């Protein structure tokens, strides 16, 4: 079914894709989704009427060409590089399909809307994050938690409603249902706003849900990378006291003077950890590498919450005794629903929160992946799609 769709779909796109687990990206021409239902209906009808062969295919293409009635199509201008892109490129989680076009921090300008789109118009600045679809009918969807829908459709490497593969934002155009489109406020530049569609909502959601957004609270942020630096900015804008917890002492000046953290702990310094024991209301743990949880749990007050955001490949050891002694919680969180994502982007615009980025051309992307593997980026790579991606026209 997907092969047929790709064969007849006239809405061609151009991007960079990996073909295998080497993860090496190279130019790739593909097709964005279309109405497979309309295709099949028109095909059966025209065959039944025995229309002329050339006319038949011409009419099918015309019928299928239109953007879906609730779809928004936009020209991609920037796309952030998330660490999960690197995992997917190399099939670290065992669920990658190739060819794979990564990218779920996608922003640009609307070029076409469907006939029933209500909230967007051509020329609007918009973005797409980690999802492009869900079932709309489960309890999670009803509660604006599409991110926990068992049938959610990820922005790339998943099966779309029409049976085709979803492709991400390392490409020149993007199409998605308007429900999963986020309007980008005019005062938020697109390049620094792009990473907020993944990194931003990933830290904003647990701060809000676990009640760690109250002025005067004390929150720790573990790891000062793509997620961590944004977590500091959101927490400070919420009026929270923030302590950065890192293995790298040389990040102290950056954390305090540039990002505005109130204090800094070296996670390998036992004296510093002991002095901060039982001082934090919550901890946002952004680290995706194996690390010990007991020292972090010890930093929590009674009823404190340790929220894990990193996608680790190996299980962590979790001692129960320190949880019982302080009625502490170890929890997890995955991005956010669409209502919360839109709330986050407006909050960021209001408080001038933006990711710290390094803008790169598309032909630098493989080098960027090598640097990302070494954590050699401050703090997020963003691809300048609009100026450096080869045009399909």
From TrEMBL:
InterPro entries: ADH-like_C, ADH-like_N, ADH_Zn_CS, CAD-like, ER, GroES-like_sf, NAD(P)-bd_dom_sf. It catalyses: D-mannitol + NAD(+) = D-mannose + NADH + H(+); (E)-cinnamyl alcohol + NADP(+) = (E)-cinnamaldehyde + NADPH + H(+). Keywords: Lignin biosynthesis, Membrane, Metal-binding, NADP, Oxidoreductase, Transmembrane, Transmembrane helix, Zinc. Belongs to the zinc-containing alcohol dehydrogenase family. GO terms for biological process: lignin biosynthetic process. The chain crosses the membrane at residues 34-53. It comes from Acer yangbiense. Homodimer. GO terms for molecular function: cinnamyl-alcohol dehydrogenase activity; mannitol dehydrogenase activity; zinc ion binding. PANTHER family: ALDEHYDE REDUCTASE. Gene3D superfamilies: Medium-chain alcohol dehydrogenases, catalytic domain, NAD(P)-binding Rossmann-like Domain. Oxidizes mannitol to mannose. Provides the initial step by which translocated mannitol is committed to central metabolism and, by regulating mannitol pool size, is important in regulating salt tolerance at the cellular level. This is Enoyl reductase (ER) domain-containing protein. Residues 50-383 form the Enoyl reductase (ER) domain. Its cofactor is Zn(2+). Pathway: Aromatic compound metabolism; phenylpropanoid biosynthesis. CDD domains: CAD1.
């Amino acid at each position: 079914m997907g092969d047929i769709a790709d064969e007849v779909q006239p809405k061609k796109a151009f991007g960079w894709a990996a073909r295998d687990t080497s993860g090496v990206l190279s130019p790739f021409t593909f097709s964005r989704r279309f109405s497979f239902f309309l295709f099949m209906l028109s095909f059966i009808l025209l065959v039944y009427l025995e229309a002329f062969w050339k006319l038949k295919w011409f009419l099918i293409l015309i019928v299928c060409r239109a953007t879906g009635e609730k779809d928004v199509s936009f020209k991609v201008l920037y796309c952030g590089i998330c660490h999960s892109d690197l995992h997917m490129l190399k099939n670290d989680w065992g669920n990658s399909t190739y060819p794979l076009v990564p990218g779920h921090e996608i922003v640009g300008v609307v070029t076409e809307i469907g006939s029933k789109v209500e909230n967007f118009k051509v020329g609007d600045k918009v973005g797409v994050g980690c999802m492009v679809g869900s079932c709309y009918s489960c309890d999670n969807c009803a509660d604006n938690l599409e991110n926990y829908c068992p049938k959610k459709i990820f922005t790339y490497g998943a099966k779309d409603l029409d049976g085709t593969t979803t492709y991400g934002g390392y490409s020149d155009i993007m199409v998605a249902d308007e429900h999963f489109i986020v309007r980008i406020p005019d005062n938020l530049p697109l390049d620094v706003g792009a990473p907020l569609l993944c990194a931003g909502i990933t830290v904003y959601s647990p701060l809000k849900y676990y009640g760690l957004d109250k002025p005067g609270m004390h929150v720790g942020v573990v790891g000062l990378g793509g997620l961590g630096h944004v977590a500091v900015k959101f927490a400070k804008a919420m009026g929270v006291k923030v302590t950065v917890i890192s293995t790298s002492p040389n990040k102290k000046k950056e954390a305090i003077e540039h990002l505005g953290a109130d204090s800094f702990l070296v996670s390998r310094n036992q004296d510093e950890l002991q002095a901060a024991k039982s001082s934090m209301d919550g901890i946002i743990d952004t680290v995706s590498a194996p690390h010990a949880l007991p020292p972090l749990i010890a930093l929590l007050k009674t009823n404190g919450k340790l929220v894990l955001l990193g996608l680790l490949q190996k299980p962590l050891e979790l001692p129960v005794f320190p949880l019982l002694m302080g009625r502490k919680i170890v929890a997890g969180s995955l991005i956010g629903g669409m209502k919360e994502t839109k709330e986050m982007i407006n909050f960021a615009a209001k408080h001038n929160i933006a990711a710290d980025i390094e803008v790169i051309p598309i032909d630098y992307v493989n080098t960027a992946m090598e640097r990302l593997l070494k954590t050699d980026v401050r703090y997020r790579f963003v691809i300048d799609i609009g100026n450096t991606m080869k045009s399909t026209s």
